[in-house]
Amino acid sequence: MAGTGRASATGAIGSAPSTAAASSGTWLVAILALSTAVRLALAYAIPPLGDEAYHHDMARRLLAGHFDHPPLTFWLAALGGLGTPVLGFMAVRLPFVALFTASTWLVFLITRRLFGPTEGLWAIHLFHLAFYFPLVAGTFALTEGPLVFTWLLGSWCLVAVFFRDRDDRPTARWIAVGAALGLALLAKYHAVFLLSGAGLYLLTVARERRWLRHPGPWLAALMGLAAFLPVLVWNYQHEWISFAYQLGRGTHVKPFQPEAAFLNLMGQSLLVTPWLWVLLVRELVRGLLAGPARPAGWFLSIMGVTPIVLFTAASTWNGQWSMFHWPIVGYVLLFPPLGASVVAWRTRGGSRARSVLAAAGFVSVAGACILIAVGLRPGVLAAPVYMPGGRSAVSNHDVFGFGGLRQALRAKGAACPGNGFIVSGHYMDAGRIAWLLDDDCLVTCLGDPDDVKNYRFIEGGVGWPGANALGISRDRYVQDDLGWWRPLFDRVTPLGTITVGTPPYRTTLHLHLLEQMRSPKP
């Protein structure tokens, strides 16, 4: 039932209608190749971010469960990490870069099925103009990449069920939905909105309610639950700690702050580019107002509306307006109808419409370049140059503010204590230190449970009775860190400070010798 959402214009970008099918494949390959090449270059050049370093450190340990997120991100980081002796941290990012290339393809497939191939090309073009998706979800070893991919994969499988050319093999189609749902649940807990969106569509579209009497949806739900079972078992063994942590972040009640919703929405608009955000919200509202009478628009809108509305509203009572990346996945399925609207607009508006679109695209690309240039000024990056055997001649271990850590510690004479370990009070810093020191010493994290995250579950993650440790703290964390460490050790001796990093990202780190650890609390 392609084109059930609205009438679609034909003809690939810059080509006649009769050549649309032939040229769409060429344009698709070109966009995918260019996008992948640019993101590979960024993955090569940019040092590991704090969360990425933490994901890599946890991935090397292959834990049975995780405090903050389901395990798919860590599994992918472990897979990429096999190549770090040759490619450095770029290897950790390779699976995430590949996933976004697949995500782009899925956006095209969904749009082509619902609206047409030209609309699909415009949808993926606009998808790449939204800052957050290609430059964050598409490049870095973060949870957003697997979430976007599995969200789109599950949506594509649902489209294959609801918007089908033939009513054949329904059970097989639902099995594919179940497999995609299982992957999504292993990516991030946001996957529950994939399930709720599909259920809402089933209940609100009369001709689809028949599926409630079919074994397919129930089989899909069971498959998703089966894939999620290891996460459930691990949480059961650990007093539901991961669910409690995430629910606590969303439901923690503070004084009502209606202005937080506005700030949250502004943050969302910055992540997806302001002018695109306005158009995406317009598509969301149009799809909801049209209702089930326009199934394609209705499906795409209800799949995205719940995370957008819920997380925006939550910021008014939990005070976390700055977490505007939480609802962003809700915008992913609004690019297909936006692609269809752009094609219709170009058909009606002619050269004027083309000029406006070109100008908007230029502004988006120029803004992204300026943002990268400002954030990654000269002196921050050190590109890797590798010698035979995988040893680096020029290190790319220049994590923001932490470059040169190994050399600074040696110059200070503050190496890893004999029969001891290195400790930080913040999980991101522990990940940075572990990456930069490259197994010179076991690194763990001791502090506030929210700042320790998975480190409490690794072997020796809470330390060893009688052992000594080298404590490393940033300026803003040092007093809090000492408040956690003093009760755990017999003696805490200041060792002075070291300065690491390259201008303008210079960081002062405080060193403390922590002696004779007492029996730590698990």
Descriptive labels:
five-stranded mixed beta sheet, 2 domains, two-stranded antiparallel sheet, globular, 20 helices, alpha/beta, 7 strands, 522 residues
Any overview of this molecule?
With 522 residues, the chain is of the alpha/beta class. It folds into two domains: 20-373, no CATH class; 397-517. Helices cover 58% and strands 9% of the residues. It has 20 helices and seven strands. It has a five-stranded mixed β-sheet, with helices on both faces. Residues 1-18 and 377-398 have low confidence and may be disordered.
Query: How many discrete domains?
Result: 2
Q: Give unreliable regions as ranges.
A: 1-18, 377-398
Mean pLDDT over all positions: 83
Helix content: 55-70%
Question: What is the overall number of helices?
Answer: 20
Output the helix-strand order. HHHHHHHHHHHHHHHHEEHEHEHEHEE
Terminal residue distance:
57 Å
Whole-angstrom Rg: 25 Å
**How many strand units?**
7
Q: Which secondary-structure class do the elements indicate? A: alpha/beta
What share of residues are in beta strands?
5-15%
Largest sheet, in brief, is:
5 strands, mixed
How do the strands line up in the largest sheet?
4-3-5-7-6
Overall shape: globular
